[in-house]
Amino acid sequence: MLRISARFYCKIATQSSFKAAEYKNKIKKDKKLNFTQLLHPTKVPQTPVPAAFSDPSENVVEIDTKTIQLLERLSLVDLDSDQALATLKSSIQFADKIAHIDTQNVRPLYTVLEKQQLQLRNDQVTAGDSRAELLRCAKVTDEDYYVSPPGNIPLEQ
Amino acid sequence: MGSYIVVRRLATQPKLAHAPKRKWKSVVGLEVHAQITSASKLFSGSGTAFGAPLNTSVTYFDASIPGTLPVLNRKCVESGIKTALALGCRVNEVSMFDRKHYFYADLPNGYQITQQRAALANDGLMTFPVITPGKKVYYKSVNLLQLQLEQDSGKSLHDEQLKRSLVDLNRAGVPLMELVFAPDLETGEEAASLVKELVLILRRLQTCSCKMEEGALRVDANISIHEEGAPLGVRTEVKNIGSVRSISQAISYEINRQLELVAEGGVVTNETRSWDAEHRRTVAMRDKEVLQDYRFMPEPNLPPLHVNLKPGSVSTQELISVAALSKEIPELPEHTRQRLVEHYKLNAETAIILVNEPVLLEHFLSITESLADVPTKVVTNFLINDLLTYCNKLNLDIEDYTTSDNALKDVLKALHAEQINLQAARQLIQLLHTNPTSSVSELIGQHNLQQISELSTIEAYCQQAIANQSKAVQQYQKGKSKALFAIAGEVAKLSAQKANMKIVVECLERLLKK
């Protein structure tokens, strides 16, 4: 059934005794990503989890021209060259693994973090006024407003 | 064009007259969005103050900058649970967040984080008095299907001339609770009464300011009509209802619009309409003409929200205890009404009016506490028939009638001591409103409002009145006792409404018997 072990999750960020300075030194030594930038504890695993799947590599993927045309239309990616086609085939083959996992009697998950409790934040204003910075990202602004094409308005106006 | 309409009306009317009389029923369901009172937003640390300068309460997360993540505000969960408990809901041990996608300029993410599959709470029930002018008050119960937490969107201003929208993201991410009620209502008055009661409850809980003018409480109504016994009709949704009064008007308008449409052989289409308060009508809106696919999906950035349902549990940093929150729920309006009926022996309707106007209730409780010898009936009559009526006449919100409890107490004290009469008390309500700094005794002196109770003065007025109203005197002496009112009225007029009417009536009876 559901097998989630505590070690899958980032222990450092969820621990209350976490000391930033200590951790920084550790990162320098281990040359790992700097997680101290997270403002709040996370429930997301911070290290990849190795998993063993059966490799269906012998199932060679064949795609007919009609499907390729459809995929090109949908993705706007040109699949004309042999290399592009090979990449597509290997991608499908890679994803195909998932279809061979036995999921009998396993309740579907909405999220892999389902057994985790959501972290809560105290009701405090900690940020907000970055207007100049954020408005700079917009193409059209007017007097501190973002400007967009007209939205839904009553028909008779 | 005009003549065409006339012809068509004439052509359809006879048909209607011959058609068997069919009974139509209207069905109304409400969705209420209530802004949860909080310092910061639902998932970010920016402020929620109303009227903050444009785009200044916006974090990177609210502006949907890549790499930002939501962190849930604890207070919003607590407020949601409290509200759910007050409305008799089942709070769910595990609830989840979902993304609801739609494309709109004031929604920078392209989706709203809401709760669809597993909401915070379900299956509540609200029972409330329905007040229809000129009809008897009755109680109505409506099922509350779901209470969910969700983000608000930004605010768009539509610039008609330049054909563009101006977007302010201050409201984007502000915490809301959406309350979805079952379509158990029938009329606009019932809907308005439900919202009125909800406002009272949320204000007591302090989970929502309910300031509709600030958009802190928004009501959408789903309205359909169907023949008795037939399945429900196609519904329309009316949005943009900005006040409690508009709720009843908008829904009544929409029901009548649908009835007229069907009577003329038309068909109601599923559409979103907007309430035009100025012209008092609903107007079709351009968007959402086709059923939208919101492409709901689980919010991958938020694990499920757990709460502790164990009785007697306490809240911890990680886990909120529902049992602990249930202890924080104050007395609810319906309980107050019952207490008023039991403790002060008020009738049910008086209790409803007092509770529905929190200011009146405060005045009542404070006045009865310090003026124990004034009968409660005198106090409630004064507050409801005189003070509230005065405010309604001026179209003034009772909350804006600023006067101290003490001033009202002084008026009632003078009234009870027969120092002034009811006419003078009414005049004082107006005088206190226009001269808020003057004391009641000053005003009585300045405006010469003392009641005349001296027997000799009253007898003089009575003699005069008897002389003036000889016809009424004759009628009275022939046995028409009601004619006495005409003579008493004359005394009131002669004394500039200042005579003590109790003594006047006694005096007149005595004089006329002779």
TrEMBL record, chain B:
GO cellular component: glutamyl-tRNA(Gln) amidotransferase complex; mitochondrion
Catalytic activity: L-aspartyl-tRNA(Asn) + L-glutamine + ATP + H2O = L-asparaginyl-tRNA(Asn) + L-glutamate + ADP + phosphate + 2 H(+); L-glutamyl-tRNA(Gln) + L-glutamine + ATP + H2O = L-glutaminyl-tRNA(Gln) + L-glutamate + ADP + phosphate + H(+)
Pfam name, any one: GatB_Yqey
Protein's UniProt keywords contain Disulfide bond: no
Gene3D superfamilies (UniProt xref): 1.10.10.410
GO molecular function per UniProt: asparaginyl-tRNA synthase (glutamine-hydrolyzing) activity; ATP binding; glutaminyl-tRNA synthase (glutamine-hydrolyzing) activity
Domain Asn/Gln amidotransferase: 362-512
InterPro entries assigned to the protein according to its UniProt record, in alphabetical order: Asn/Gln-tRNA_amidoTrfase_suB/E, Asn/Gln-tRNA_Trfase_suB/E_cat, Asn/Gln_amidotransferase, Asn/Gln_tRNA_amidoTrase-B-like, GatB, GatB_Yqey_C_2, Gln_synth/guanido_kin_cat_dom
Protein purpose: Allows the formation of correctly charged Gln-tRNA(Gln) through the transamidation of misacylated Glu-tRNA(Gln) in the mitochondria. The reaction takes place in the presence of glutamine and ATP through an activated gamma-phospho-Glu-tRNA(Gln).
NCBIfam families named among the record's database cross-references: gatB, PRK05477.1-2, PRK05477.1-4
Name assigned to this protein: Glutamyl-tRNA(Gln) amidotransferase subunit B, mitochondrial
Organism: Drosophila virilis
Organismal lineage: Eukaryota, Metazoa, Ecdysozoa, Arthropoda, Hexapoda
